[in-house]
Amino acid sequence: GKNRLGGSTLAQVYGEFGHTVPDLDQPADLSNFFAAIQELNLAGLLLAYHDRSDGGLAACLCEMAFASHCGLEIDLPADDLPAAWFAEELGAVIQVGAEHVDQVRASLHKHSLSNLVHDLGRPVPGDTLTLTHKGTQVLQAKFPALQRLWSETSHAVQRLRDNPDCADQELAGQLRWDGPGLQPELGFAFPAAPHFHHARPAVAILREQGVNGHVEMAAAFDQAGFRSVDVHMSDLFTGRQDLRSFQGFVACGGFSYGDVLGAGRGWAKSILFADNLRRMFAEFLLSEDKFALGVCNGCQMLSALRDIIPGAGSWPDFVRNQSEQFEARLSLVQILPSQSLFFRGMEGSRIPVVTAHGEGRALFANPATISSEHLALRYVNESGAATESYPQNPNGSPQGITGLCNADGRVTILMPHPERTLRTVNFSWAPKNWPAISPWRQMFLNARKWTG
Fold first, then answer.
1. pTM above the 0.85 mark?
2. 3-state secondary structure of 110
3. Strands, DSSP E only, in 282-336?
4. Does 183 score more than 90 pLDDT?
5. Is residue 369 pLDDT above 80, yes or no?
6. What is the pLDDT of residue 197?
7. Is 202 exposed, middle or buried (0-12, 13-18, 19+ CB in 10 A)?
8. Of 252, 296, 299, 405, which one is the catalytic site residue?
9. Active site residue 166
10. Can 70 be counted among the known catalytic residues?
11. Are the beta carbons of 335 and 343 closer than 8 angstroms?
12. Is 50 annotated in the active site?
């Protein structure tokens, strides 16, 4: 219950040490606190939680508001307002529903914490922080302005370390408190569990040194009615496996050969420079009853094989992201009308998807000749328009392009990872009304329907 300012950010701002530092005076309090928080969390009574650490209560509450884009009305009755506002003692802020306050208080009392609990205020619509002390308003500030100050140092570092234009675009987006955020839109019904009475077609889940997305991909095809078979490239090279045994193959995500020679290029060269593999892949890709999918690293690899893929001559290379960083985000993509067998009936839908790549920017030999008939997927903003703005477009591809297919739609490549979002719980955020199965299941079911 103390508010000691020694070593605090506030003291440092004024060039002082601040005398007595925070401490854990009663170790039992920390143990009881942990037990109480676990109990409240398991009971579903916590709407939000944030520890009080660097910057004290002021920074804690601001960061909670930054994340939620809401206003706050705070009333602190403490005698020493600066100390209560900026002290970095152990503690946390929890948000609970008004209807659960008595239940939460009872739980905290059971854990001997009653004398350490304080009412702070409430979240409100808007973007304003209002601080009241003993009935007098002492501060009113706009959160976007506070967030600009909060982001100032990290933004300056990002401009030096990364692409400065991307850094500026990301900051501008963070400060837009009126934006609608991700806006999914489905043009098809949620996929039901498949009911296939035939034998499961075999699909080769291709791996190479450094590939790490094969388990999720195998699960995606298995759940759609395929028989997923783990196939390492060495199996094909030595003849232990042959692509002719499979209805389709999938080149999975990861970092083949550590992205030496560029993302996916080493993997592609291992095929193009081995006569038996080049012949095996070329024959497979020519067969009208076979399909192929490349995701992330596999997308980069198949793009480098475009010379042996019918109707893929205009595909781009995939090069370093415009941000100059590896991007791991939940992005919004739109499915475009195309010949891709994976996306039939899904055209026009906007769905969040996992993005995780460092070299995903599509580089076309001649941007003026980009053919819409080969485009299958693109990054879009909240209104559904193709975007080149960061971070909605995490790699900077022209027109937001992030997925393509060949002329007859049997071969599809895409940079995002639908196989990592097979279930709604796999998303970091999804609409509350979505059922347990993710919309992305549909593209794998489409492949199963195509096989007959």
1. yes
2. helix
3. 291-295, 317-319, 327-335
4. yes
5. no
6. 66
7. middle
8. 296
9. no
10. no
11. yes
12. no
